[in-house]
């Protein structure tokens, strides 16, 4: 989905990690690795002090290794090995980009499509399931539905599937109506 900008270097590492996970444990390990990498990427992106610690030249390498071992202890061995390799190669600063690229890899490997459904009010679980079923039928892929609520839409929905956006909101229709009224007004004044 275009909300995710995939970095080429992050994609290279993500693809190698994804293939290793797939070869070693199929879909089960791929999903476990995906969960772990996503958690690490989110922490790396949001925890400034963690980034500063691991990227600082002032922190001894041994302290970084110890902290990394504690951080990675509950994660699959493949993720622990991968992260140690990433840090040894001086690529620690791209952890969040690897996480984004890994989600993209999983989408391709598992036949998924990222979908964002934005509505004016929250939707019920039954409505979400109906959207998922319709999207599955329309795309032939497994939709991963993200929902957002924006009251300024007034009513209707905006659907983003990959890079395609379908805007069925009342706000859009009102804006189109205003534009038609303005255009007609210009023509009426010119006549």
Can you offer a commentary on this structure?
The protein is built from 7 helices and 4 strands; from the N terminus they run H-H-H-H-H-E-H-E-E-E-H. The chain has helices at residues 8-46, 48-55, 61-72, 77-88, 95-110, 125-139, 170-190, and strands spanning 112-119, 142-149, 157-161, 164-167. Helix 1 crosses helix 5. The mean pLDDT is 90.
Attribute tags:
alpha+beta; 13% strand; elongated; 4 strands; 2 domains; four-stranded mixed beta sheet; 7 helices
Q: How is the secondary structure organized here?
A:
Layout: H1 8-46, H2 48-55, H3 61-72, H4 77-88, H5 95-110, E1 112-119, H6 125-139, E2 142-149, E3 157-161, E4 164-167, H7 170-190
Parallel strand pairs: 1-2
Antiparallel strand pairs: 1-3, 3-4
Helix pairs in contact: 1-5, 3-4
Q: Tally the beta strands.
A: 4
Helix-strand makeup class: alpha+beta
The share of residues in helices is 55-70%
Overall pLDDT confidence: 90
The coarse silhouette is elongated
Low-confidence stretches: none
Question: How much of the residues is beta strand, in percent?
Answer: 5-15%
The main pleated sheet reads as: 4 strands, mixed
Short synopsis of the structure:
The protein has 191 residues and is α+β, with helices and mostly antiparallel strands.
């Amino acid at each position: 989905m275009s909300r995710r900008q995939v970095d080429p270097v992050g994609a290279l590492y993500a693809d190698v990690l994804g293939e290793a996970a797939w070869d070693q444990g199929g879909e089960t390990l791929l999903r476990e690795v995906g969960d772990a990498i996503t958690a690490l990427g989110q922490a790396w992106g949001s925890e400034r002090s963690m980034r500063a610690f691991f990227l600082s030249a002032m922190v001894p390498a041994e302290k970084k290794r110890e902290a990394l071992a504690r951080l990675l202890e509950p994660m699959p061995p493949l993720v622990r090995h991968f992260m140690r390799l990433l840090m040894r190669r001086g690529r620690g600063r791209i952890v969040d980009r690897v996480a984004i690229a890994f989600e993209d890899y999983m989408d391709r490997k598992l036949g998924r499509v990222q979908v964002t459904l934005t509505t004016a009010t929250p939707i019920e679980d039954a409505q979400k399931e109906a959207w998922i079923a319709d999207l599955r039928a329309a795309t032939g892929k497994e939709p991963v539905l993200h929902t957002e609520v924006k009251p300024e839409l007034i009513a209707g929905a905006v659907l983003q599937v990959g890079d395609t956006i379908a805007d069925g909101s009342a706000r859009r229709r009102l804006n189109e109506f205003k534009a038609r009224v303005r255009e007609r007004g210009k023509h009426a004044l010119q006549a």
